[in-house]
Design a protein that fits this description.
This protein is an alpha/beta fold. It is built from 9 helices and 15 strands. It has 2 domains: about 210 residues, DHBP synthase (Alpha-Beta Complex), CATH 3.90.870.10; about 80 residues, no CATH class. The strands form 2 sheets. Strands 1-8-2-3-7-4-6-5-9-10-11 form an 11-stranded mixed beta sheet, sandwiched between helices. A 4-stranded parallel beta sheet has the order 12-15-13-14, covered by helices on one side. A hairpin with a 4-residue loop joins strand 2 and strand 3. The chain is globular. The structure holds threonylcarbamoyladenylate and magnesium ion (MG). The site of magnesium ion has 3 residues, from loops. It catalyses: L-threonine + hydrogencarbonate + ATP = L-threonylcarbamoyladenylate + diphosphate + H2O. It is an enzyme of class 2 (transferase). This is Threonylcarbamoyl-AMP synthase.
Length: about 325
């Protein structure tokens, strides 16, 4: 299959995407977090096609992207806390895991048969297309399963080119890491995945404590595999001293010892800005995802705000596999 890349600004881009989605085909689309591999949530062919195109080993549940809060309420039950969070953070990089509504018009493969559903209202083209479809759009990150997440049309094309008909190009992703996933649970919030909204912001908006379920707990996001986002080489985290020949992902203005021995260095944010670092993270991993690059060292990155999501992704990318 030939994969066409169209700029989002091309007047034919959205109508083409809409026609493909209505025909049950898949389209890679930009969201503010990362590029998504989008399909009609009501079409079993589309949902199964997403797993096939990504080479996903299992039927992980997918996020349903909605055009509005009312479309969200047609597929999920929002309690007061969920409503407050949606009103505060949507459209934006927050996903809520909520009880699936009994009459939700989405294919059971989209939720992997779970009694809950992950719902998010993104900014921009995906929400507009969900509106025209009249149904949520399911979209995992647009990369091959387990590999570096696509944050540009080129990165998406490297992974999924030849497998999908169309990629809409809106330049590099603004946020650069996936959405934060929250599951409201009584008087607390469970953080299933750190992401584009920092936990401090969510705690401030809700006034509720945020807990992180133990990894491997059944409640944790089923997609939270230990090894994920991985480039070909081995990754060493919190590197204070650089060893000879390492490819270095740096952060901030501190120079680690031995940096002159590095084969190459990319700095996620020379000024030490975690938002900028998040936006650059997957492009840096992709730049070092080459068969001849064996060893990647990452200098320490603070764990506050977006730093939690950045460190989570790097820890998974570094996990044994
Ligand atoms: O920013 C994002 O969230 C991107 C863009 C494209 O929207 N999407 C994304 O989707 O990251 P994906 O499929 O790569 O990750 C979705 C995560 C998975 O870890 C999955 O297990 C979890 O959401 N998830 C989905 N439904 C769930 C549910 N009912 N309960 C718990 N976790 C769920
Ligand atoms: Mg993903």
């Amino acid at each position: 299959m030939r994969t066409e890349i169209l700029p989002l600004s091309d007047p034919t881009a959205e109508p083409r995407a809409e026609a493909l989605l209505k025909a049950g085909a898949l389209v890679a689309l930009p969201t503010e977090t990362v590029y998504g591999l989008a399909g009609d949530s009501g079409s079993g062919d589309a949902v199964a096609g997403i797993f096939a195109a990504k080479g996903r080993p299992r039927f992980n549940p997918l996020i349903c992207h909605v055009a509005s809060l009312s479309m969200g309420r047609s597929i999920a039950t929002f309690d007061d806390v969920a409503l407050q969070l949606a009103r505060h953070f949507w459209p934006g990089p927050l996903t809520l895991v909520l009880p699936l509504a009994a009459d939700a018009a989405i294919h059971p493969l989209a939720t992997a048969g779970l009694p809950t559903v992950a719902v998010r209202m993104p900014r921009g083209v995906v929400a507009r297309l969900a509106g025209r479809l009249g149904r949520p759009i399911v979209a995992p990150s647009a990369n091959l399963s387990g590999r570096v997440t696509g944050t540009s049309a080129d990165a998406v094309a490297r992974g999924l080119g030849g497998r999908i008909p169309l990629i809409l190009d809106d330049g590099p992703s603004k946020v650069g890491v996936e959405s934060t996933i929250i599951r409201p649970d009584g008087d607390r919030l469970l953080l299933l995945r750190a992401g584009g909204v920092g936990r401090e912001e969510i705690a401030a908006a809700s006034g509720l404590p945020i807990e992180t379920p133990a990894s491997g707990a059944p409640i944790a996001a089923p997609g939270g595999l230990a090894s994920h986002y991985a480039p070909a080489g081995q990754i060493r985290l919190d590197a204070q001293t650089i060893e000879s020949g390492e490819f270095v992902i740096a952060f901030g203005s501190d120079t680690p010892r031995g940096l002159e021995r590095a084969a190459a260095v990319v700095n996620l944010s020379p000024s030490g800005d975690l938002t900028e670092a998040a936006a650059n993270l997957f492009a840096a991993l992709a730049a070092f995802d080459r068969p001849q690059i064996q060893r990647i060292a990452v200098t320490p990155i603070p764990r506050t705000g977006l730093g939690e999501a950045i460190n989570d992704r790097l820890t998974r990318a570094a996990a044994p596999r």
